[in-house]
């Protein structure tokens, strides 16, 4: 689904969200209440410029509109793989974006992520996965690392990883696997405005991803390991 069709389904034809290059932004009203929307389109690679632009909108919302909910519309191919961005400190820019989102959450803003098209690698980690909750459309594509890249990093053969991915969501791309692992809270089907209303109503600052992964069978040990660390602290 393209971003304009999605925005129209959520907020009506006069939604007020604009596109500037690969960046989406706007102040909309939902159920009579204001909502800040920030996101990307065109499978945008997140480099220094895009990371700082998004962080600026988040911080401006915190400063100018205390408590206003923030919706992140996610469509990214991951971090920008370009020497210029590496030299400019892409790691710091993306960390700044993630910290800005976390700061907004700590200041009482409900922050929701919605993967409406594609979410890959660092561009997803520093946005949707830091929100209070990250949801997705059923047709979205989500992965952090392709199997060939995973094979190079882990030194496990592609054939073995492909075999493991058939039974273990941790090794497999796909939106359903991220739901199973708890990274994606739920899929939005049917009336999208109803789905957004429910998402806003159930958003909280509590991180339940590990518990969801245990309940759904996608990450069976994470919650137990986290609890052991907390108990030992």
Structure description:
The chain has 233 residues and is of the alpha/beta class. The chain has one domain (3-205): 2-enoyl-CoA Hydratase, Chain A, domain 1. It has helices at residues 3-11, 48-64, 83-88, 90-106, 121-125, 147-154, 158-165, 175-181, 192-202, 209-216, 222-232; strands at residues 18-20, 23-30, 33-40, 44-46, 70-79, 111-120, 133-136, 141-143. Strands 1, 2, 3, 4, 5, 6, 7 and 8 form an eight-stranded mixed sheet that branches. A hairpin with a 2-residue loop joins strand 1 (18-20) and strand 2 (23-30). The protein starts with a helix and ends with a helix. This is Malonate decarboxylase gamma subunit. It holds the Pfam family MdcE. InterPro entries: ClpP/crotonase-like_dom_sf (IPR029045).
Layout of strands and helices, then pairs:
Layout: H1 3-11, E1 18-20, E2 23-30, E3 33-40, E4 44-46, H2 48-64, E5 70-79, H3 83-88, H4 90-106, E6 111-120, H5 121-125, E7 133-136, E8 141-143, H6 147-154, H7 158-165, H8 175-181, H9 192-202, H10 209-216, H11 222-232
CATH T-level topology: 2-enoyl-CoA Hydratase, Chain A, domain 1
What ranges have pLDDT less than 50 throughout 5 or more consecutive residues?
Answer: none
Indicate the radius of gyration in whole angstroms: 18 Å
The CATH level-2 architecture is identified as: Alpha-Beta Complex
Tally of strands: 8
Largest sheet descriptor = 8 strands, mixed
Strand content: 15-25%
First-residue to last-residue Cα separation: 45 Å
Derived from helix and strand composition plus strand pairing, the structural class reads alpha/beta
Q: Please identify which CATH superfamily we are dealing with.
A: 2-enoyl-CoA Hydratase, Chain A, domain 1
The secondary-structure element order is HEEEEHEHHEHEEHHHHHH
- Helix proportion of residues, in percent? 40-55%
Mean pLDDT: 92
Number of helices: 11
Global shape: globular
